[in-house]
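queue> holo job accepted (pyridoxal-5'-phosphate)
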Amino acid sequence: MKTGSMRIAEISVPAIRHNVRRIREHTGGTVIAVIKANGYGHGAEIVARAAIEGGAALLGVTDLEEALALRDAGIEAPILCWLHGAAADFDAAVEADLEIGVSHLAQLEALAAAAGRAGRRAIVQFKVDTGLSRNGAAPAEWPALFARGAELESEGRVRVRGVFSHLANAGEDNDLEQARRFDGAVELLRAAGCDPDLIHLAASAATFSSARLHYNTVRVGVVVYGLSPFADRTSADLGLIPAMTLRSQIVALRDVPPGTGVSYGYNHLTQGETTLGLVPIGYADGMPRALNGGGATVSVAEHHCPIVGRIGMDQCIVDLGSLGRKVRIGDPVVLFGDPATGVPPVEVWAELMRTINYEIVVGIGSRVRRVAVDDDGPGAFPPAGPAALPPTGSGSGVAVPPPERVEGDGAPRIERIEIADPESMHELGRRLGRRLAAGDLVILTGPLGAGKTALARGIGEALGVRGPVTSPTFVLARTHPPLGDGPPLIHVDAYRLAGAGELDDLDLDLDGAVVVAEWGSGLFDEHGSWIEVTIERPTGSTGPGDTVDGDGLADESVEPRAVAVAGHGPRWRSGVLT
Ligand SMILES: *Cc1c(COP(=O)(O)O)cnc(C)c1O
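queue> job finished
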């Protein structure tokens, strides 16, 4: 981690630009990007610039202070703020050309007075309460408020630029009821003589639930950050990319015997001999203390390792298991990020804490450095996730040498192949994939960085399933649906399965799919026929220079692999590859 910082919230600028563009395309109207509370914990300045680049026309914050801080930081875009204390400094607001959400008559008068003192117009957006029972003018106040707004506008002291309301997210019927009340408010405002440009009701949830609620502008927060406002729809379901990756590193390693007490209170005892890794993030940094023992994992070298023992103010402990021998001090750890890159999503913490993703990201502490990452720099980080291998076109024609047949005394039939580089591993996967049909099982065994993911990716490509095939991560098993007539691919990370029972619990249609299980040896004993692919790195390749960045990535050093393909059972009696 080249910045030297032990705790980093890496913010993807391209993700934020993409998300805003996606929202614009989806609604066809104006987008107000809500960046209150330090951009939902992402860093308000970083998000402000990225959102504007993505096409947001305005920024929204709660407080005047937040808006003024953005101005101080040089953000010149229109900014709307809507919650004001009794002594709000509207002089500063007018001076900074902020748009003020006005909820009652006294506020309107105070703002108009400030405008008078400054000798310029204040920009008003009326905030009306249509059923949330919070901030915003109640319907009974609308006639007087709007009439006074029209009057001040005709005097040149304010410009009524918008009208907005906020939904209670209390169901479809309630949304429509609030929308009808909002229609009434807009009508009343126009009848009073105002002509608002921006009419907005929808926040993130309504933006993705009903076009009826879009009006000509949406006022969105959580989706800008690539997170889903729905419990049952993922970021990817909405076409969004999570922008925050919470990163740390391993700062200490300890090999311990079974029964070792871990952290305060010893509420975790190691089950077997294992390696513990110390990660310098704790509840001061927004990692909920109550995650303790809940089953959350962190990503280390493309694998998911459980957080064990009580979480401290500054640090937590992960059980690296057999991975421990491969991990070095300084190796990167991802606590959450975009699951499409193979790391756990923030929703794991949110679910375990019975809260929403919003609360987790906004709670990331001030000690965590926010680092914006753009396409063209700063290049301080290796690319997140397992995009480890250069893409190889199916016609790349990489030669895989013919297997050397080893005649065992009966089953299994073992074919041994020397694989020169990641491209050849990918090609071997394609070759294997072409032999597979629904009901087939492939077990991949081999150390980190051996190329298991490259092999799985090749299998997926040959089967013609929807990608990307990456190491399965926060899910124990990932199903890749077929793009054509073939079977789906189910990719299982058995490393994290407690036993075959846990796989049964997932209720997958294993017989209707090709199953590729990493580390699955011994789990599928009842399967009649299966293929076990064992990848061995050459001896002597695990020396100090050999970082563990994940399957394939570690090995751009292009070291040869010894691969054994063993066909077990009647289906593979005459070999797998021949
Ligand atoms: C926070 C907030 C939003 C954004 O909500 P999301 O659900 O994050 O889109 C919009 N409007 C108001 C008034 C808010 O307070």
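queue> Confidence is low (pLDDT under 50) at residues 377-409, 540-556.
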